[in-house]
Structure prediction request, 130 residues.
Amino acid sequence: MNRLCAVALLVMALNGAARANEEDEMMGFVVDNAISHVGHDFYYAFTERLRATSRMDFNLVVRERPDPRWGSLITVEYQQRVIYRRFLPPNTVELQDTATEAADLVRAQIVQRKLETLLQDTTDLEKDEL
Prediction:
């Protein structure tokens, strides 16, 4: 009986540790590394659309690199990889539509990456070794 209780306690402790590891990472952050007014406006419209259409179980970084000639290069990173890149002209009139389109594309890319991760064959190597 004591052995059965010890095994049950061990299983409960392992389950609790697994849940704690899943809960350790905070999700739902979108970091704003924009510099200009156009970049900040894009960020606000982009995050507004993402929060309205997804669960936000991921973290993103929105970066901006302004260029006086071409406008601003906007990139969105997911797990330290660029998944969206676009130049925004300095006088962007259709910024809301561009940000909405970007949010939809980013959400689709994240879903695709998560599916690829789930379907990845890791019999020889662990996921962090790939």
Summary: The chain has three helices and four strands.
